[in-house]
Amino acid sequence: MTTSAATGSTLARAALLLALTAAAGVAACKNDVAGSECDNARAQLNRPTDGKMLAFALAPQSIYYHYREMHPADTMIIDWDTSKVYWGLACLRFRTTDSVHIDPTGPFQLVTSGSNAGTAWRQWYGQTDSITAYAIWGCAGDGGTYRLNADSTISFTWSNGQQYQFFGPTGAHRLRGDSLIQTTAEESYRADSTHASWRVNWVRAYCGEGF
Question: N or C: which end of the chain has fewer CB within 10 A?
Fold first, then answer.
């Protein structure tokens, strides 16, 4: 996986551009597979659960990603294209007592299969090209514990991994009916101005959990 030299220098300059790293798929990306630096259980669909669990699957058609980087010479823009094929599956599983609602607190699991990749379009120096974009990437963990707050937001405490994009520290997670809606927005005003926005829905689904 590669990216341009200009983009690579930008990635090294600001932590904000980890979102762009995911979109551009730089060579430093590592997958959670056995024997890698990120060896965990994320890819084990049927791994044991702690009691009953309800799952929410990432809905690819709901993905919104917009990145804008303003340089003196030009502005780079990247947008996710939901009309293209999405490869993979990602699910969040939460503890449940009644098999209808998630419990106020308990363990959660992140389950992934495939690359969880799609297509984004990049505008840069008068050119528009397609790039591979990753919704779940790198060393994201496989779960931890959560708390459902009184305002319907969910707080995550991860037991391992590194969280970026909608799982990052600026992410907001809100439960609405049978959907979990996640939004993130980050900005940086250093030598260049950058802005990244993510939004995605997770919808109730079966993801291999057994009762």
Answer: C
